[in-house]
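Hey, quick one: can you model this chain's 3D structure?
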Amino acid sequence: MTDLIIRGGSRGDNPAAVVSYSKHELQQAQQLLGVVVGHLDAAADALGEAYGAAQSLHGFDAVISAGLAGRLSVTLTRLRYLQSDVGSLIPALALAEGHYDQTEWEINNDVVVLRDQLEGFLLSYVLESAGPYPSGRLAQDFANHWPVYLTATLTLPLGRGGAAAGRGEVFERMSGLTRGEEHGGVASSSLTERFARAIGWGSEVGRLTARIEVVEIRETEGAAGGLDGGAAHGTMRGSMQDLLANQGAADQERSGPGAMAISSTKTAARTVHTVSLPGTQTGDGSAPEENPWGVGGLVDGLTGDSRHATAAVLDALQGVGAEPGDRVVLTGYSQGGIHAANIAANALFQQQYDVAGVVTLGAPVGATDIPESAFALHFQHAHDAVPGATGEPTGTSYNHLVVSSVEYAPGQSPGVDADSTLSDAHAPKNYEHMAMRGALSGDPDLERVYGGLAGVYAGATSTRRYSVSLRRDPGAVGARPAQEGRPGPASRGPASRDGRGRPN
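Sure thing. Here's the predicted structure for all 504 residues.
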């Protein structure tokens, strides 16, 4: 498949540029053409032998063989021409591969030179963005270089020549010093990190973020069939369709505001709990500070390492009967993906549960400490600005892959999409489409990680599904430490449970 761009795995963290065909496909085509030439050689030898045999016939058969020999001669001539044409394609593909490497180097070099300049940012915006929203890479650049862009914009009236322009360039250089060391500045931390610390402090003082309480745990009949609806019942097997179904069950339209979905699957080894967290929720009728997935949840994820969300998930897992050492797979869309990655990287969470997998969709994950033993897939549409909002590229490793694409789901396009309040590329349908295309890609790294996630559920015998309703308590600012005992949820819902909060 040519529409998926993959970082991590055996290829490392240096993907090829976005082109119609990957370098791997060009190399594979050369090998296949070599095999074709070999088959053509064998066919030509066989035809040559048949031609010689036809000419050696005598008597009555010679009349017949003359016509046959003529036809064989024409066929052999055409085959030799075909051999020559196919053979000439091999060096042409090798030359294309060389041009590919040279072009990629030139593009990457130009990007490095221009990305911290306003002109380069605007040019990339015109070339990369499919609509009014910037791409994910441009969002990263803006997060890291916005003082320079802002200063350059304010000094545009000074012109680009003469003493006045020189003063403008001085202002730009001075503003550039505020950036982190990795981006040409002098600060030890990035602009995003410093901004996040300030926002986090202000949010705690203003009680925008606060402790999250489990209100109700309700056992459900089945999970929604993917991010876009449908129904999925039966035992989870860890396929991408299963994981997307559980993610769909956390959607606000299906479980209400402030909910998350948990599926507990018994396997031959241990129970696997699939925890799915939704995206940012607004306009749901509840007080903004009470919905854990509102603006406060976004701040908690980006500035507080999801400490409140982590405590809530620990409470919810205890509420559905999870035992220490059980395996956990976390999935999340947008804001939910931030929390999923942060929870997986939380040391206290890792002490209590075995983090086996993480799947994020359209989330600004950045660099995290997700265990290398866990299989991780991060899906990020190339035209979606959200994954680049933190200014950091998502970390990769052998078991942690970033999958990107410029393709839209059927019925979706770079135009305005009602399913997303941020950008058309951020629509859940596009991420479900990308994740399912990845399952069919044939890419060896994707097959290995998809298979690893499915392997977590090996020997699955039964699955119980739960919808967990949560509420942020604005009167409780401090997060409950993960090691403290946790009271049970306020209401257990219709599920039958024993005195310890575990399902009977």
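One thing worth noting: The radius of gyration is 29 Å.
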